[in-house]
Amino acid sequence: MVAAASSCPFRYHMSSSNAPQSQSRLVSICVPTRNRAESLRRSLESIQGQDYSPLEIVISDNCSDDTTEQVCRELAASDRRVRYVRQPRNIGLHGNHNFCLDAARGEFICIFHDHDRRALDIVSRYVAFFAQHSNVGVVCSDWELIDDDDRCIGVRDHKVKTVTPGLEYIERTITSGRTSIGIPGAMVRRSALGEARFEPDAPIGFGDFPLWFRVAEGADVGHISERLWSWRQNDVSHSARTIESIADDYHTNLGAYCDDHLRRFPEHGALVDRWRVSISRYLFWALTYEVGLHFRKHRSMSSDENARTLFEIMNYRLTPGQFQNALSQMKACRTGQVERLTFAIVSTLIRLHLTWPLAWVTEHQTTMRTVLGLK
């Protein structure tokens, strides 16, 4: 993994305008975990050190078989805000997240993962944001990507409105395949969350998108244009997958949401039809990007180092089987004449072994996303 350590230093900061102060609104910070005892201990430091009160910390241990239980019981004994629950059996990733949402008692809820970092005033900043924007149901900030040595390897700065109407957020996310809400760094208002939960048996990839869409159906989406948290990425992260391997997850989870949305809002037939086309169109261009990335010699070389995708950062090469699968999925996801022509050109270049144009395009992926309307 190639780091860009000097490009985006993360700062644990405290805003003077939101100095530590007691509030009446309880915030629940939920931490679903499994077999990450050491990273959990480090991650909890930036949770226990939050400048906000009142706060409860709910740790749901998904039947870990390492020293997670010992770590959590020690923390619970030393910090009365910690409520530790050990699951008697593995209830799955989404099941564990749902348990946390059900167990939370606060007016505001965060699901902070067990290996990330966050600024010590992120909770108070979010609560203050909600106080200023009563129609917002969920808020998140920009974030950075870090490796196991806490080095910054990329940033995610989202050029979005401070407050985005819910349906606009859904439309933008489905069209671009990118969300301004990162689950390990967001806060949701309990009243906006309602009965929305993760689908327990849904694929892991993009499994949080339908949850945020359900919230956005009845509330606006907030954003703070500062990097208030860090998302750790390594070879065992759930996001450390090839595009061709997660394309089905995207199609399944967002397709299921479209079905669900149409059942609840039958008058949105034309809108949902447009979303379905956007899902296939996004996947086509994402897979095209991965095919081009396959031919790049130096993944660390990019026109915008901070905006490198995870697929550049992971620096992998597709196996022959994966490569053919990517091409097959591209073919299946063609939605119009532009995609059909592009697929024909890509296939011809590969057959003629003239692949440098494909690699060159991926070095300018940010510009290409703008040209294709995938921003």
How would you portray this structure in words?
- The chain is of the alpha/beta class and about 375 residues long.
- It has 2 domains: about 15-230, Spore Coat Polysaccharide Biosynthesis Protein SpsA, Chain A (Alpha-Beta Complex); about 245-370, no CATH class.
- Helices cover about 45% and strands about 20% of the residues.
- It is built from 14 helices and 10 strands.
- Strands 1, 2, 3, 4, 5, 6, 7, 8, 9 and 10 form a 10-stranded mixed sheet that branches.
- The protein is globular.
- It starts with 20 loop residues before the first strand and ends with a helix.
- Residues about 1-20 have low confidence and may be disordered.
Short note summarizing the structure:
This protein has 375 residues and is α/β, with parallel strands linked by helices.
Name its key features.
18% strand; alpha/beta; 10 strands; globular; 375 residues
Residues in β-strands, percent:
15-25%
Which structural category do the helix and sheet elements fall into? alpha/beta
Radius of gyration using CA atoms only = 21 Å
Low-confidence stretches: 1-22
Which CATH architecture of the largest domain? Alpha-Beta Complex
- Residue share in helix: 40-55%
Write down the overall geometry.
globular
